[in-house]
Amino acid sequence: MNNDSQEFVNSLLERLTKLNYIKPGDVPNINLYMDQVTTFMDEHLSDGKRREDDKILTKTMINNYTKNDLLPAPIRKKYSKEHIYILTYIYYLKNIISISDIQKLLNPLTDKFFNQDSVPNLDYIYKEIYTMEKIQIEYLSKDVSSKSDAASEYFTEIENEEDREFLQFFALICLLSFDVYTKKNIIESLIDDYSAKHSAKAEPKDSKKSKEDRKNEKHKAKEE
User: Which residues contact 148 (CB under 8 A, 6 or more apart)?
Assistant: First the structure.
């Protein structure tokens, strides 16, 4: 890629380090109404918008997440800080994996740790995840920069400067896309593996319960 393209990539990487995130300390300790939740999310994640009129979160989205068992229902129409944590995870995950996979991933999280006072709770978990991911930004920047350099080493024999620049740009997109594709497949495989193991553990209990139900039904039929 030419110098202009490389400078643009560098500016994107610099922007990446300055993106706003929902820091653990930013999440209010008071419960919020839905309008307050959407305003809070929009204010803290606006840098992630591709276009100015893009919506970070809407009332319809929140209602659908609750209906699809991704988000616990609000209490008296108010959402707690735990709801904000879950909505943040959904916001990032929905661009990568399916709603059904998000459900498989978040259901154990909400079942075990939602509204939990003792550690581990969602407050503790969010802080740990946030710290871990902030550290990764530096490595991510180096990785993208490395891929940009690698793409610049190809199509160097193309004499037409405009064609060469496009093909090197296309090569960078392909490199980044392949990285996302492979990691997406890894994520889906991890979720499938976890779900299979979780189902296998739950199966004996379900089988036992079914046997007991059948036994009770037979017993009830004899009495009738």
Answer: 1, 6, 9, 172
Q: Following DSSP, what letter does each residue of 119-185 receive, concatenated?
A: SS-HHHHHHHHHHHHHHHHHHHHHHHHHHHHHHHTSSTT---HHHHHHHHHHHHHHHHHHHHHHHHH
**Distance, CA of 148 to CA of 5 (rounded, Å):** 10
Record the pTM: 0.80
From 31, 48, 41, select the one nearest 65 (Cα to Cα): 41
Q: What is the DSSP letter of 42?
A: H
Measured distance CA(169)–CA(177) in Å, rounded? 12
Q: With pLDDT > 90 as the criterion, what percentage of the chain qualifies?
A: 59
Distance (Å, whole) CA 131 – CA 36: 26
Q: How far apart are CA 204 and CA 212, in angstroms?
A: 12
